[in-house]
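> call design_seq(struct)
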C-alpha cells in the first residue's frame, strides 16, 4: 500500500522523502562513527579517557534464520535503541551493539538436504539480517559486532570451556578453584584419595578418574533422550509428550550414554540466593527458583533385607522432604535406570508373592527387563503425568524401614525418575497421591502418619497431603513423634536418624547437571583430545581455536527407529584426518583422538556480553579494565550488594530459565577464577512483549493473505467472500507476515519505529494492525509541517518569544518525557509528544513561524524514537553534525509549578462542583473556598456540614 503522492505538495513528508532522509543519515552515522563507544583500554580506547557515567544496553541476540525479520522481531531491539539513544543524548557513554547466535540446527538440516555448508547458509542469512537492522536505523557500535560461528569468537568460547574443565568447586570456600590446586593437595597428602592410597602410587588413569570426579566439566554416563531415527541425543524440550522427536516424529528412548556434563549443581545455592541481588522481574526469579528446586529434608539409608535380597549388604539411599512420615513408608520404588536395579533383582519370586506384583513374568529378571525396556520408550514428561495409571514391577527383594524394622517390598516404577533426588523413594501412600494410587493398584499397605487437626473425616479414600498432627509414629528405641506438629516431628526424627547412623539432614535440588554434548556438526568443537589410554587432555591455549573440518556428510549416523541399543556416531567421526592427530602437548609428539561431539548452541550465548566489551582483543577474552568499567559493581549507584553486570538486558521471557541460568553459571566461574569483577552477567532484566497478528481463513479453513482482507461493519471479506478472523503468531503459514522492509517502503522507518513503540507498554503483547500505522505517519507529517513549509521546503521557524502557557506546556512535556524514556514507557512518551505537537499546531500551524524555543526541544525529544527525521530537522534548524549526543532538553522548574489548583468538591461521595484556589492555599483557605462555592452553599442552605475533609492538591470531601 505505497503512499500516494500525486498532487501532494513538493516538500511533504512522504514515504519517498522519509526513505531519502533515512538512507542519508544512516550513511552519515556510519561514516562518522557516531555510535562508537570508547573503552578504557585496548584498541577501542581513544586516549582521552572515558566518561564516568556509562550505560551497557544489550539485546538477546537473534538466530539468523533464512526468513529474515518480520515486524514482531524488532520490538525489543527498537526499545533498547530508544533507551540507548535517550541515554546517549543525556551525556552517557553508551555501549549498544548487536551480534548473532549463529550455530543452530536449521542450518545443519539445510546442509543435510542440500549439501550447502552451514557456514554459507548462516553467513547469507546474517547479511540479510544486517541489511534489515541497518535499515531500521539502530545506533549500534558496529565495531563490536560478533557472531558465534566466527573462529575468532569461538576460540574464546573454547578457552572458557577449558577454564571450567580445569576447575573444581571447593565447598569449604564456596568458589571454583584451579584443578591444579586440588592435585597438589592430593600429592601433598592433605586430601585423601577415595581408595586411601598415596597419590604417587596411583596410575595416570586412576589419577585422571579422581580429578574428573571433581571437575566442573566432566564426562559422565548419564540418562539421556536417545533418538535412533535421528541419530542424536535430544533435550527434553525437543521431545513431545508422546515420547517422540519433535523433528521427524521418531520414538525417543531413555538411555545411559557417555556425555559431557557441566557441574552446574555445585552453584545451586549461589544461583538461588543471588537472585535477591538482581533487578529482574519477579516471575523470572520464581521460574529460576522453581527450576533449581532447592528442598530441605533428610537423606535416609534403607538396608536391603539380607534374607530376601539379591545384593546382600546393599543400602538404598533416599531423600525426602517429609521425614516425619517415615513410619508410613510401606514400600520403596527405584527408577528403572537406578544402578542397583540389576543387583536387587532376585532370581526367583518369593513364596506367596501377590500376582499383581509380578506382571505375569516367570522370574523377577524377566519382568524387570520387559518393564525397563517399556519405560525407556517413554519421555520424562509422560512418566510424570499425574493422571496416568501407575505401573511397576516387584524386584523380588525387600528393604528394612530403619525406624520400625519392617520389611518392605522394593519395586521398579517409571513414575520415579533417575534425574531427581537419588532415583529412589520411600513410598508413603497415606501422605502422597502418587504413592496412594500405586498402593491401591498393587494391594500395598497404607498407614496414616499425619492427620488433620479436626480428624480424618473426608479423607477415608484419599491421602492427606497437608500439615497436621503426627500419629502412628513411635518405636521402642526412644523415638516418639505422636502428637507433634510436622515441623517439630521433622527435627526430632532427623536427630534420631543421625544419632543412630540411619541418615542425616540434607538439602537437595531439582536442578541436574547440564548435558553439554551434541551429536551434531554445526557447533563449537571441544578443545579436548584423548590419548591411547582414553585419558582426556585439554589443548594448550596456543592451539585454539579448534576449527570445524569440512565434511562430505553433515548428518549423524541414523538407525531403525526402534533400535534402542544403537550408539551415537556424530558427523565429525567421518573426518578421520581431523579426528586422529599427532600433537606435542609438552612431552613430545604422541597420537591423540579428538572429541567428536560438539558443544550445544547455548555455549556461545553464555558469555557474549564480555566479547561485546572487547571484541578485537587477540590476547584476552576481555581486558580487565574494560570489563570493570562496563560491568563492574557500582555500589555508590546500585547499593552495597550490587553484583555488577550489564545495566539493561532485554529479551523474551521464554529464555527465563535455561539461557539465563547457564549464563549466570559461566559468569560465576569466571568471577571465582578472577577473570571478571562482576558476580552476575545481567544486573537488570526486562522482558518485552510480543507482536502477534490477525489471520483469516475461508470457508474451507484455508488461510488467505491477511493484507488483502477488507473489513466492513465488523465482518471480514477476501475477494468478496466472508472469512473468519483468528488471532495468533505471525508466520508464513498463516499468510499474515508483515516485514519491516514493507513498512519502510510504505511509510518510512521512523513511522514504523514510532508505531511499534506507541502500540502499548513495551512489556505487553499486542496485535499488529497495518491500518493503524497511518496514524503514526500522520503525526510525523504534522510535526514536519509545523517546522517546514510543504510548498517551498523552507524552514518555518523563527527566533520569536513564545507565550508563558507555551513554555508551561513545553517544560511539562520535557519533564514527563524524560521520566518516561528513563523508565522504558515509550508509549506514553509518544502520546505526550503527539499532545504537544497538536497544541503547537493549533497555536502556530497557520502562523508565519513556530518559535525556535519550542521547535528545537520538540525535535530533540522525538530523536530517540524517530532519529532520522529528527536529525534532518535539527540540521535544517541550522546545527552542524548529529544530535545523537544531545543535549536532551531539561525542564525549567519555574514552569512546572502551578499558580492555581482546581479542587473537585464531593458531597456525600459524589462530585457536585469544583473550585480554583492559589496553589499555595492552606487547608483552611481551601475549605472556606469550597463551602462558599455557589452550588455547595445552596446544598448547605445556611447549615453547617457534619465534616469537611481536604486532601491537599486533590479534592474536598463534604459530608452533610
Amino acid at each position: 500500500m505505497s503512499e500516494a503522492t500525486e498532487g501532494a505538495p513538493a516538500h511533504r513528508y512522504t514515504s519517498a522523502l522519509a526513505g531519502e532522509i533515512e538512507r542519508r543519515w544512516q550513511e552519515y552515522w556510519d561514516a562518522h562513527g557516531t555510535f562508537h563507544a570508547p573503552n578504557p583500554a585496548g584498541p577501542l580506547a581513544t586516549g582521552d579517557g572515558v566518561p564516568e557515567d556509562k550505560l551497557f544496553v544489550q539485546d538477546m541476540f537473534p538466530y539468523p534464520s533464512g526468513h529474515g525479520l518480520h515486524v514482531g522481531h524488532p520490538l525489543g531491539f527498537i526499545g533498547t535503541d530508544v533507551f540507548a539513544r535517550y541515554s546517549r543524548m543525556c551525556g552517557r557513554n553508551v555501549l549498544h551493539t548487536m551480534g548473532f547466535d549463529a550455530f543452530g540446527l536449521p542450518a545443519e538440516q539445510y546442509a543435510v538436504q542440500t549439501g550447502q555448508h552451514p557456514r554459507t547458509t548462516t553467513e547469507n542469512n546474517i547479511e540479510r539480517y544486517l541489511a534489515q537492522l541497518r535499515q531500521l536505523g539502530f545506533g549500534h557500535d558496529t565495531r563490536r559486532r560478533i557472531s558465534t560461528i566466527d573462529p575468532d569468537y569461538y576460540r574464546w568460547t573454547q578457552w572458557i570451556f577449558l577454564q571450567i574443565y580445569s576447575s573444581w568447586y571447593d565447598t569449604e570456600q564456596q568458589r571454583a578453584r584451579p584443578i591444579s590446586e586440588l592435585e597438589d593437595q592430593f600429592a601433598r597428602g592433605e586430601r585423601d584419595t577415595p581408595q586411601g592410597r598415596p597419590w604417587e602410587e596411583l596410575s595416570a588413569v586412576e589419577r585422571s578418574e579422581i580429578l574428573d570426579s571433581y571437575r566442573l566439566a566432566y564426562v559422565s554416563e548419564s540418562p539421556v533422550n536417545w533418538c535412533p531415527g535421528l541419530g542424536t541425543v535430544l533435550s527434553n524440550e525437543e521431545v513431545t509428550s508422546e515420547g517422540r522427536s519433535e523433528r521427524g516424529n521418531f520414538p525417543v528412548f531413555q538411555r545411559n550414554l557417555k556425555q559431557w556434563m557441566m557441574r552446574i549443581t555445585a552453584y545451586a545455592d549461589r544461583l538461588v540466593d543471588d537472585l535477591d541481588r538482581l533487578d529482574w522481574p519477579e516471575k523470572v526469579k520464581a521460574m529460576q527458583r522453581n527450576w533449581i528446586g532447592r528442598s530441605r529434608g533428610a537423606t535416609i539409608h534403607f538396608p536391603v533385607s539380607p534374607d530376601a535380597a539379591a545384593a546382600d549388604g546393599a543400602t538404598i539411599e533416599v531423600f525426602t522432604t517429609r521425614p516425619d512420615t517415615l513410619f508410613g513408608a510401606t514400600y520403596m520404588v527405584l527408577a528403572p535406570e537406578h544402578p542397583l536395579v540389576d543387583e536387587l533383582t532376585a532370581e526367583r519370586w518369593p513364596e506367596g508373592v501377590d500376582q499383581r506384583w509380578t506382571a505375569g513374568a516367570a522370574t523377577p529378571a524377566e519382568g524387570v527387563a520387559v518393564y525397563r525396556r517399556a519405560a525407556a520408550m517413554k519421555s520424562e514428561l509422560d512418566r510424570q503425568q499425574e493422571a496416568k495409571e501407575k505401573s511397576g514391577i516387584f524386584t523380588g527383594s525387600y528393604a528394612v524401614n530403619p525406624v520400625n524394622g519392617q520389611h518392605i517390598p522394593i519395586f521398579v516404577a517409571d513414575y520415579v525418575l533417575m534425574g531427581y533426588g537419588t532415583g529412589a523413594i520411600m513410598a508413603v501412600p497415606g501422605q502422597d497421591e502418587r504413592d496412594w494410587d500405586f498402593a491401591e493398584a498393587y494391594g500395598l499397605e497404607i498407614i496414616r502418619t499425619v492427620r488433620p487437626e479436626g480428624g480424618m473425616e473426608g479423607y477415608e479414600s484419599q491421602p492427606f497431603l497437608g500439615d497436621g498432627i503426627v500419629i502412628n509414629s513411635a518405636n521402642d528405641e526412644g523415638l516418639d513423634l505422636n502428637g507433634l506438629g510436622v515441623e517439630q516431628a521433622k527435627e526430632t526424627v532427623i536427630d534420631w536418624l543421625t544419632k543412630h547412623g540411619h541418615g542425616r539432614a540434607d538439602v537437595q535440588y531439582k536442578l541436574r547437571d547440564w548435558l553439554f554434548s551434541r551429536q551434531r556438526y554445526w557447533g563449537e568443537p571441544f578443545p579436548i583430545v584423548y590419548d591411547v589410554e582414553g585419558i582426556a587432555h585439554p589443548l594448550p591455549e596456543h592451539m585454539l581455536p579448534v576449527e570445524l573440518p569440512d565434511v562430505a556428510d553433515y548428518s549423524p549416523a541414523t538407525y531403525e527407529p526402534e533400535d534402542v541399543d544403537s550408539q551415537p556416531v556424530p558427523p565429525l567421526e567421518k573426518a578421520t584426518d581431523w579426528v586422529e592427530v599427532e600433537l606435542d602437548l609438552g612431552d613430545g609428539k604422541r597420537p591423540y583422538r579428538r572429541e567428536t561431539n560438539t558443544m550445544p548452541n547455548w555455549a556461545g550465548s553464555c558469555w557474549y556480553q564480555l566479547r561485546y566489551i572487547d571484541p578485537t582483543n587477540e590476547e584476552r577474552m576481555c581486558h580487565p579494565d574494560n570489563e570493570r568499567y562496563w560491568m563492574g559493581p557500582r555500589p555508590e549507584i546500585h547499593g552495597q550488594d550490587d553484583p555488577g553486570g550489564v545495566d539493561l538486558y532485554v529479551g523474551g521471557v521464554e529464555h527465563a530459565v535455561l539461557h539465563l541460568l547457564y549464563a549466570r553459571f559461566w559468569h560465576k566461574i569466571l568471577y571465582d577464577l578472577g577473570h571478571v569483577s562482576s558476580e552476575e552477567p545481567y544486573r537488570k532484566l526486562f522482558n518485552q512483549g510480543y507482536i502477534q497478528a490477525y489471520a483469516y481463513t475461508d470457508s474451507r479453513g484455508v488461510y488467505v493473505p491477511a493484507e488483502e482482507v477488507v473489513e466492513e461493519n465488523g465482518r471480514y471479506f477476501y475477494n468478496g467472500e466472508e472469512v473468519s478472523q483468528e488471532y495468533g503468531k505471525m508466520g508464513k503459514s498463516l499468510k499474515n507476515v508483515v516485514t519491516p522492509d514493507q513498512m519502510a517502503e510504505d511509510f518510512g522507518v521512523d513511522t514504523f519505529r514510532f508505531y511499534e513503540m506507541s502500540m502499548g507498554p513495551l512489556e505487553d503483547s499486542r496485535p499488529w494492525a497495518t491500518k493503524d500505522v497511518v496514524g503514526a505517519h500522520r503525526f510525523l507529517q504534522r510535526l514536519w509541517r509545523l517546522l517546514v513549509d510543504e510548498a517551498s521546503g523552507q524552514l518555518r521557524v523563527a527566533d520569536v518569544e513564545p507565550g508563558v502557557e507555551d513554555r508551561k506546556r513545553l517544560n511539562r512535556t520535557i519533564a514527563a518525557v524524560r521520566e518516561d524514556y528513563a523508565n522504558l514507557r515509550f508509549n506514553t512518551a509518544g502520546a505526550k509528544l503527539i499532545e504537544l505537537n497538536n497544541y503547537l499546531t493549533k497555536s502556530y500551524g497557520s502562523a508565519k513561524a513556530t518559535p525556535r524555543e519550542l521547535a528545537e526541544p520538540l525535535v530533540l525529544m522525538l530523536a530517540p524514537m524517530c532519529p532520522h527525521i529528527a536529525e534532518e530537522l535539527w540540521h535544517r534548524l541550522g546545527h552542524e553534525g548529529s544530535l545523537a549526543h544531545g543535549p536532551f532538553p531539561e525542564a525549567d522548574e519555574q514552569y512546572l509549578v502551578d499558580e492555581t489548583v482546581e479542587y473537585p468538591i464531593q458531597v456525600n461521595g459524589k462530585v457536585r462542583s469544583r473550585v480554583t484556589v492559589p496553589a499555595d492555599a492552606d487547608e483552611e483557605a481551601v475549605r472556606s473556598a469550597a463551602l462558599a462555592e455557589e452550588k455547595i452553599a445552596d446544598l448547605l442552605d445556611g447549615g453547617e456540614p457534619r465534616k469537611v475533609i481536604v486532601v491537599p492538591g486533590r479534592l474536598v470531601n463534604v459530608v452533610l
